[in-house]
Each structure stands twice: as C-alpha cells, then as structure tokens.
Amino acid sequence: MTAHAIDATATRQFGDNRSMRPANTSAQTLTLTRPDDWHLHVRDGDALHTVVPHTAAQFGRAIIMPNLRPPVTNVMQALAYKARILAAVPEGMTFEPLMTLYLTDHLPPDEIARAQEAGVVAVKLYPAGATTNSDAGVTDVRKTYKTLEAMQRAGVPLLVHGEVTAPEVDLFDREAVFIDTQLIPLRRDFPELKIVFEHITTREAVQYVQQSDRYLAATLTAHHLLFNRNALFTGGLRAHYYCLPVLKRETHRQALLAAATSGSAQFFLGTDSAPHPVHLKEHASGCAGCYTAHAALELYAQAFDSVHALDKLETFASFNGADFYGLPRNTGILTLQRAPWTVPDCFAFGEATLKPLCAGETLSWRVVNRQSLWGITATSA
Ligand code: DOR
Ligand code: ZN
C-alpha cells in the first residue's frame, strides 16, 4: 500500500484495518489508489474527444473494447486505434489504453504472439449477434479452438460477452444459459485459459465465478450494481437504462452488489460505459449501452455506500483487476468527497449529443482531485 499525502481534512479510509463507518455518519472523504476500468467502449473519431477525457480524469488504464465498425481484428489495427485514443487524452493527463482484439471464427492463432509482443492485452469474444457491432463475432466457439489454445499457452486472457443468441431463449435467461451451454464446456476444454466473464448480471453468474478457480474472474458495471430492471420501465420506457446484458430483477442486483463488496479477488470494476448518440438511444429500436464514464467512480461509490461497504471499493476498483491481468497496480491516488452535485444533461458527441446515465440527477459523491492530481486546468464533468 502506497502512502499518499493528501489534503489535511481528508480522512484516508482504505488500506488500514478500520472499517468504513455507516454511510450517513462522518466519513466525508475517500482516498484510494488510482483505479482502472477493465471494460470500456470509447468508439472512434470525434467521439473520442468527449469520452476519453472523462475516463482519463479518473482511471489510470482501461481495457478498450474492439467492437468498432469494422472491428479491431489485428495488431496493426489495434495499435493505430491506440494512437487515436492517446491523441484524445488532454495535455497533462496520463492514461494508458489497454488494447484488445476482436475474436472471429478466423482470427489466426499466430496473431496471438504478435499481439503479446505489441502489448495487446486480451481478446474479446462476442457471440455473433449478441450485442452492438457483434455481427462479425463468433458463430461457434469450436471454430476458435486453435486460437484459444495459443492464448492459453501465452497466458493471454479471453474476455467473454456471456450471452447466448438463440432467439428461442428468453432475453433475461441468456446469461444463465450461456454458463451451462458455453462457458462450462469452454473451461473444461481450456482449464488454464484466463477468462473474464464480462459485465455479469445474474446470481447464477456470481455463483459460478465463486465456485471456480483463479483462472476465472468477472467484471461488474456500476449500473448493474445500482439498478434493477424496473429502471427500464419506471414512468415510461427509459432508453438510457437499456444495455446488454439487460438489467435483471432485484435479487440479481443484490447478488452482484454482495459479490462486488465481498472483497473477493475474482470481482473487479469494468464500467462497460458504452456511448451512443442520443437520437439512436431514444429511437424505435434504441441502441444498447449506458454511458457512465462521466461519473464512473461516483456511481460505484454510491452503490458501495448503499450497503456501507466503501472500505471495499479500493480492492474492487484499484487492485483486483491489475492482479488478475498480471499488471502492476497504479501508484497515484483518487479522492472522492461526499458532496452532492448534479450530473450534466448532455455532452457534445461529435456532431451529435450524448446523454449520460443519471443526467440531471444528484449524486452524493464527487471525485475532487482530477485537477491537482494530473495537472488538468479545468475539471471536466
Ligand atoms: O450495452 C452494451 N453496449 N452491451 C454491449 O455488450 C456492447 C455495448 C456497446 O458497444 O454499445
Ligand atoms: Zn461492453
């Protein structure tokens, strides 16, 4: 644990043996090792200039999802994309995009060695048709076995969108069915392949991860920790709460929150922040994805605070992911203050507009040291 000099009024809440006091008592400031986002969509082009600064203001690194159009399927594309992301990091901020490749039925096994050499950290499996820009995804996982063998040998993690796509399977059951029909056989065939079960949404997934070994971990989004499926329908159809895997019922949300706050090394932060222009969200067939990068840590703090578990936030946000990927933990810090603030209604998004999750609502925690930590002159919302 690194010791950090912070503002004299701040109380360091992590890294010692004291547990956090209940939410409504005197803890006003939380300081944690600078976190990482282990699942992020930043898109491309002008959009980068809105969303990359939001993430870089909070996180040291982020795993960049490769579901562009066309997808990022080789190392050259990944490195070119990385350069475009870095060009959108504001002066004075440090941020490292961790690049991934998009698994197709035809990703050559020898691309894995090239990927590793180039610092590409993982490969993402989208079942074809499961979600946004997944058309080029995997039609049958057995077609990728040679590539998975190369990954297992090299220790390159497979990141999994864990939903089946068969139209006869109920949308709310797609994750649980994926475990039984895809993940269990996959893990049996590749027992030492590192797998991240991304953005899990069900009690079944939590239990499956808990019962497995150190080769399996899971990311959890802030929105799945904060909301259940009622959020999609309260007062009308609310497009900004629609993502995939879709929000589930309350019992599942509680299981996810218990896992996130359990201290288990197998669960870590992955926002799945997934920006779409507002006109494509508020649409007859609205796009899946919640934009949360503008207030990522604030939303996670709200969720952890709701069960008086802020003392577990640092492990979840700053340690477990780095440890699983075998990367060093960050050395900077991030400070949150209990200070109500209103989320902006929207952001410019290239030529379009981006509506963040919780737009216009009040959140209780606020990241306060974006400026002082990374030399940023204006605090971006
Ligand atoms: O809601 C989602 N949005 N889920 C995904 O898996 C993809 C993401 C996106 O890229 O928009
Ligand atoms: Zn995603």
Descriptive overview:
- The protein has 12 helices and 13 strands.
- It is α/β, with parallel strands linked by helices and 381 residues long.
- Strands 2-3-4-5-6-7-8-9 form an 8-stranded parallel beta sheet. Strands 1-10-13 form a 3-stranded antiparallel beta sheet.
- Strand 7 (195-197), helix 6 and strand 8 (216-220) form a beta-alpha-beta unit.
- The protein binds (4S)-2,6-dioxohexahydropyrimidine-4-carboxylic acid and zinc ion.
- Zinc ion is lined by residues 39, 41, 65, 272, 274.
- Zinc ion binds at residues 39, 41, 65, 272, 274.
Would you spell out the secondary-structure blueprint of this structure?
Layout: E1 29-33, E2 37-40, H1 48-56, E3 61-64, H2 75-87, E4 96-102, H3 111-117, E5 122-125, H4 145-154, E6 158-160, H5 174-189, E7 195-197, H6 203-211, E8 216-220, H7 222-226, H8 250-260, E9 267-269, H9 278-281, H10 296-306, H11 313-325, E10 333-342, E11 347-349, E12 352-354, E13 362-367, H12 370-374
Helix pairs in contact: 3-4
Bound molecules: (4S)-2,6-dioxohexahydropyrimidine-4-carboxylic acid and zinc ion.
Zinc ion binds near residues 39, 41, 65, 272 and 274.
